Amino acid sequence: MKRIFSAVFLLFAFFCASLPASANDSLADGTYTINYKILKADSDSVSIANDYWEKPAKLIVKNGKYIVQVTLNHSSWIKEFKVSNKNGFADTKVVSADPSANKRVAQFELDQVPDIVLSQIHVYIPEDEFPGEGVYDSRYTIRLKFDKNSIQTVRGNGNGSKEPSASAAAGTSNEKSDRNGTGQQNEADKQTENNPETGDSALLYVFIALFLLSTTFLIIRFKSRFKVL
């Protein structure tokens, strides 16, 4: 009896432990936003570069791939923006640029929902743009720390909707940036957005857990009646 109960309990604990990971790491195909911040390479302190990366980022999920798009302001100062991969570091792809606003949208691809992404950047500020300090020329290693709990679906992102173009992505980022400069309207907007869809595996685990609990109860009840007889 004790062995049966122990086996059922271990199975139940396994599925319960797997449930949060499945819910957090599985997203249906679509377009989302996700908040993040730029941290220093050797600590969890926010890097000064954090001000040059606008929030939130855009997350496009398609066929098991996770494409992250971020908007950089002061784009002319950031000469290189690389992210880590299996082979070291690779340049991010520029999907759109707005020279008049000195912004660009860069993207990179991951195999999972982003968490911490290691990055290398090269910052170069000409002397005429850095008065009194001279030319600023430095390379840094930074970390992009993403908040999975902040993931929100993009409005109008239905099953039949098409992926937005690069120019549309840039326009969305610029509009959010403008709202941030005049107030906190984007906070109210976020509250009206829907939560992201997750895979059906989470629901399956719930049913399995309920089944295991029911089986345990029936075994205990059956054994009790058998002893009485």
From TrEMBL:
One GO CC term on file: peptidoglycan-based cell wall
Molecular function in Gene Ontology: hemoglobin binding
Location(s) in or outside the cell: Secreted, Cell wall
Membrane-protein topology: Peptidoglycan-anchor
Signal peptide: 1-23
Alphabetized SMART domains for the sequence: NEAT
Domain NEAT: 27-154
Region (Disordered): 154-196
Transmembrane stretches, start-end: 202-220
Alphabetical UniProt keywords: Cell wall, Iron, Membrane, Peptidoglycan-anchor, Secreted, Signal, Transmembrane, Transmembrane helix
Predominant subcellular localization, coarse grouping: secreted
Secreted found in the keyword field: yes
Gene Ontology process terms (BP): heme transport
Polar residues bias: start-end ranges: 154-186
Name of this protein: Heme uptake protein IsdC
Organism this protein belongs to: Caldibacillus debilis GB1
